[in-house]
From TrEMBL:
Chitin-binding type-3 domain ranges (all copies): 188-233
Signal peptide positions (record): 1-27
GO molecular function, one term: monooxygenase activity
A Pfam entry, by short name: LPMO_10
Name of the featured protein: Lytic polysaccharide monooxygenase
Organism, scientific name: Streptomyces vinaceusdrappus
Keywords: Hydrolase, Monooxygenase, Oxidoreductase, Signal
Length: 236
């Protein structure tokens, strides 16, 4: 074996362990969060609430299955567990549609919804890869008033799940897509700060229906003025 080859083998043997240590660990191949109604991390990402690190990765609230925390047990996302923060509360009816946005789709066991320790809904994933956006119609089962809903996406082939908390006011006034023809119901989906809207899309917010004039994300209906992106179509 010539000298150059020997030197190359020695250098390779020394460098390989260093590369293994210095290269970033592979990321999980499943990520997602609830974008409608605007979940706590959705509000953080939009800058509506000051939340620290979660602002940059709302899709990454991952933890072991079976937890009941908004942060998924992640200390860096602990602000999501702080009920004293000024989270926006979505008025809803006796039922409401929740939408998950999956930035990295993974085979799914199920999606579950909890209020406290009470499971109010579960939707099967059948081990299949979900669509980028998946919506579920959740029945609150007689609950009323302000509630914190914990939405859980259980992936099928790991021991982990993704967590997302949504603050709602069941039976409250204003927008929402609650069922039963209750006063204040709006037909358009509830506005979400993290959703991308295109010209012509309609949303409900603050008891009114709004139509986007052009592409927009993060701009709250009712705050952009007469010449802004959102056109007020009236109360609903």
């Amino acid at each position: 074996m010539d000298m150059k080859r020997r030197v190359g083998l020695v250098v390779g043997a020394l460098v390989a362990p260093l590369l293994a240590v210095s290269l970033p660990a592979s990321t999980a191949n499943a990520h997602g969060w609830v974008t409608s109604p605007g979940s706590r991390q959705d509000q953080c990402a939009a800058g509506i609430v000051d939340c620290g690190q979660i602002k940059y990765e709302p899709q990454s609230v991952e933890g072991p299955k079976g937890l009941r925390s908004c942060s998924g047990g992640n200390s860096q996302f602990a602000e999501l567990d702080d009920d004293s923060k000024p989270w926006r509360v979505t008025p809803v009816g006796s039922t409401h549609t929740f939408t998950w946005h999956h930035t990295a789709r993974h085979a799914t066991a199920n999606w579950q919804y909890f209020v406290g320790d009470r499971k109010i809904a579960e939707f099967a994933g059948n081990g299949a890869q979900p669509a980028p956006d998946v919506s579920h119609r959740v029945d609150f089962g007689g609950l009323t008033g302000r509630q914190k809903v914990l939405a859980v996406w259980n992936v099928a082939d790991t021991g982990n799940a993704f967590y997302s908390c949504i603050d709602v006011n069941i039976g409250g006034t204003g927008g929402g897509d609650g069922g039963g023809g209750e006063p204040g119901d709006c037909a358009a989906p509830v506005w979400s700060a993290g959703t991308v809207y295109r010209g012509g899309d309609t949303v409900s917010h603050g008891g009114h229906t709004w139509r986007a004039k052009w592409w927009v994300t993060g701009e709250e209906p009712g705050t952009t003025g007469q010449w802004g992106v959102w056109e007020d179509l009236g109360a609903c």
